[in-house]
Amino acid sequence: MARAAATVERATAKERTALVGERRTDKRQAIVRGAARVFGREGYARAGIDAIAQEAGVSSRTIYNHFPAGKDELFRTVLLEGSRRVVEAQVDAIDRRLHKVTDLEADLVAFARAWLEPKSAHPEHFAVVRQMQAEAGRLPSEFLETWRANGPDRSQAALAERFRELAEEGWFEAPDPEQAALHFVLLTGTEIGSRTHPGATPLPESEREALIAAGVRTFLYGHLPRRT
Q1: Mind giving me the DSSP string for 129-163?
Q2: How do residues 11-24 score in pLDDT, each as one tens digit?
Q3: How far is the C-alpha of 35 from the C-alpha of 33, rounded, in Å?
Q4: If pLDDT is split at 50, 70 and 90, which confidence band does 196 have?
Q5: Maximum alpha-carbon separation in the chain
Q6: Where are the domains of the chain?
Q7: Most CB atoms within 10 A, among 16, 35, 135, 206?
Q8: Which CATH number is associated with domain 2-223?
Q9: How far is CA 158 from CA 20, 80, 164, 177, 181, in A?
Q10: Averaged pLDDT, 219-227
């Protein structure tokens, strides 16, 4: 009887520990989501811990329990977690759309469309990025470097690797795959980003498709083998 009671007590203790862990994780996620909304709305300089606490539905003390270094640590976390989600989506687009190429131009158009989807799928992240870029001269350079290293640089490195493979398969010429990946991203996304700020305002689907198609054609003009 005593042994059975002890077993039940241990099981109950484990359940309590697991529940506490789940609640802590939920609180942390609520804080990060609330911080992303506040940073995206107010920017880094104007955002305050009290405003973030109110947005997240927690106390300021709870925020410091999770993020002892305060606003700097929280901003860095928001950048890292948002960048991770975008990179995962863009790497998935590479895997889905460029895994097996059969019609180069059509496949690149479909890929470019998928590559740009995170801009509209993760508006809070890109709102933070816009605010950060607007404040770049007043922010520690570490923030921009963290975002680039864990966001755009990682995505473009994955794209460059796939472009290297496609060039080896004879689909196009890319003596510098990193530069080819950069050209592709700029040609298919820059004008759309400029018109949507990026992803903040809608763009008619017909215009978006035309810009993507034009960007792909320009890319291929520069990278298809020249006939002699």
Answers
A1: HHHHHHTGGGS-HHHHHHHHHHTHHHHHHHHHHHH
A2: 565 565 555 556 76
A3: 5
A4: confident
A5: 91
A6: 2-223
A7: 35
A8: 1.10.357.10
A9: 38, 18, 10, 10, 9
A10: 88
